[in-house]
Amino acid sequence: MSTKGFNSFEIAQAQFDKVAALLDLDAGTREFLRWPMREYAFSIPVRMDDGRVKVFRGFRVQHNDARGPSKGGIRFHPQETVDTVRALSMWMTWKCAVVDIPLGGGKGGVICDPHNLSAREQEKICRGWVRQLVRNVGPVQDVPAPDVMTNAQHMLWMLDEFEALQGGRYPGFITGKPVGMGGSLGRTEATGYGVVFTLREALREHGVAVESTRASVQGFGNVSQYAIRLYQQLGGKVICVSSWDQKDQASYSFKRNSGVDMDELAGITDAFGGIDKEKAKKLGYEVLPGDAWIEQPVEILLPCALENQITPETVKKVHAAVKFVAEGANGPTTTEADVVLKDRGIYLIPDFLANAGGVTCSYFEQVQCNMNYYWEKDEVLGKLDSKMTSAFLAVSELARERKLYMRDAAYVIAINRVAQACKDRGWV
Question: In CA terms, which of 10, 22, 76, 398 is 20 to 30 Å from 125?
Fold first, then answer.
């Protein structure tokens, strides 16, 4: 999360400033896009199971909606900060633009730890979040979704509260819902699959066979698990994954040179992606410190957890064998570390392109809800593959033509689209 040393929003602004200069954006447009259009911060009082009232802090930031309603997840995290939410909302704007879907960027959060909350207490937080924002969100204003430590059940509680307050049925208000209650088939796989769709294209462009590669992955949540599954189906081998241990309040890396077995690891993992250390040891995994994932002698690194993980300190540990980094997480690489990756010639697929599969499938879910007609899973994943591949190829082509770093090329496309929408509307 954001700390004094690593402020996610400052990183997001620095990334924007660099590309705004490349695009020669006028001062007014730059200032407008550097900051969110709207921010909401509020208190959510909850009567806990023991009878006492506890107050939780909640946020919603709407960065830009020139291209369509704001779109972005709601995360529950004990170290949530408004700057983290600001950064994530900004990245969502660029993410929606780079894959060319008609949505803007938003993000929300609540400072809390679901590990220590009962289901009833979590439900109260969800409903309280909606009550605070019911006039400022909705299918044509701002469409939330799950994020870190939130899930389909949380979304359904929020939808139910929104519909109760509005007096109607609005399934397009929120995405990431359970299938059968307005959720889309394929949504669970979408972000992780999207990461691997872009990685597949990058390897193809470089003439590298997937079967000849190994990967190390940070995180073992939803994004990581599905990325690993698809990557292994394509023939790659994952030799190391990391996960957060709630009991120890620390992360660990799990390594096995013969490759990880997803079904076996998933069988010893809790609902929040925490792998049981003792059971893993019995299955032949070496348990290492949490940042050991970044040191592995592999061709591919997949950071799929939280932001600010590849830093000026940790980037020094990246093995010489690494040739590709696909950012499954939002903002995992700091500006300084980015320079090191670039100088080393490591091919990077930036976060807001690599992990845009989630928001793309959320858009598909929204479309299906608004039509009240739902697609089969193969159709959803086929459309996702097409959208992600097209977006990757556009960024890759621009990077080659203008000799740009991939992150810069993705930003040029995204920021240009958003800036043009703001100009067309007469805002700037």
Answer: 10
